[in-house]
Structures are given as structure tokens and as C-alpha cells.
Amino acid sequence: MSYVFPPALPASVAVEGVDERLPVRRIFCVGRNYAAHAREMGRDPDREPPFFFTKPADAVVDSGETVAYPPETENFHYEAELVIAIGTGGKDIAEADALSHVWGYAIGNDLTRRDLQLKAREQGRPWDWGKAFDRSAVIGPVHPVSQVGHPDTGSIRLTVNGEVKQDADLAELIWSVPEIIAILSQSMTLQPGDLIMTGTPAGVGPLVPGDTCVVEIEGLGRIETPIGPRED
Predict the structure, then answer these.
(1) CATH for 12-230?
(2) How far is CA 162 from CA 59, 98, 107, 138, 231, in A?
């Protein structure tokens, strides 16, 4: 097969402890999956069916890389998240079988142009300009299930310049990892390399150039993101 110009290299994320990288196919994100965060966003945290949005695969950024303050925003936010890496695809996956489809877990930071997201929400428009911009998905090394199991409890914590901004427990997820996988697979076929960002706790807030944002999840280590000068 030939192409009219060279295709882009596949997006990928690091794997803990090895040189090989995990290819990224798609990035799904769960909205408002912690009750306290739903409240701070002005929404009812009752257990309604979860909703999803996406980020492009090539939005991924490794831990330690500097992310420039993005254009067209004055309210650039962090969001600490547990990330699921799918290793075995499937459709209509039963909740009881869902964990067998997981290759591993990582720490994520769902970077958000909050002003653009809220404007889109108010106008009933998609969130893409607020969520799916360049370098908006910081994803740390993926830890294989064989090494870390399936974390469903444990601290998830975010600091900016050493100051704690988000501090919660994975047990506070409204929709659990098996539930998320089962529900998402009813709508589309999951494939190896799909990543799922599972939602963020309360305490989201702004980043400015010069900040260093650190996310830690118990059992998965930490990721770090310096924020660089504005990119206009």
C-alpha cells in the first residue's frame, strides 16, 4: 500500500520497567465520576448512567515532558485520573469478565481548557475544544496487571508546586473499572491500545506557566508535568 504522504507514527505511552511502549489506539474519558467533583462542577452526583468524551491518541504526553500553556484559554486546569489500558478487545463485555480485558493501569492528567469547556456546555455543544487539544493527555508509564493487580482502593493525589490540590481515594469512583468497561463496550467494540481515563476527584483548578504539577496514585508511583510559557 502506498500513501500520498508518509503516515504519522503511532502514538504510544511508556510501560513501566521496559523499553517497549504501548501503542495508543483511542482515548476515552469518563465525565464526573467522583461525587464531590460533580458537585463542584454544578451537577447532581446521583448515579446516572456515565457519559464519555474522547481525546485524540496523539494528545498523549509522557511524564516529565513540559507542556506549554495552550492557546485560546485563560483557565487551564489539571485533573488527576486513574487510566485503564485495554489489552484484549471485545464488544458487549460482561461486567464479571471486564477485568480480563485490562492490560494494565497508569496515572493520568486530563488537562482541560476549562473556560472553553464550560462555554461549550452552556451552548449545548461538544467539549472538543476544551478537552481534545494538543498535548492534553499526560499519561505515565503503564503498569501491567501482572505486577499491580486491579487497584480499586488507594490514594489519588495531585499537587501543584508542592501544594495539595486533589486528595481522594479510588474507592470513591461512582462507576468502577469493571462497570466502565462493560458500559463502554455496549456502544462500541473496545480494542487493544484503547485507554480509558476514569474521571477526576474534587479540587480541580488552574495551572500557570512555571507551575509543576505532580499526580500520585498508590501503587502506581507518580507523574510530573512542568508547565511552560504560553503557546500562541
Answers:
(1) 3.90.850.10
(2) 26, 36, 18, 18, 24
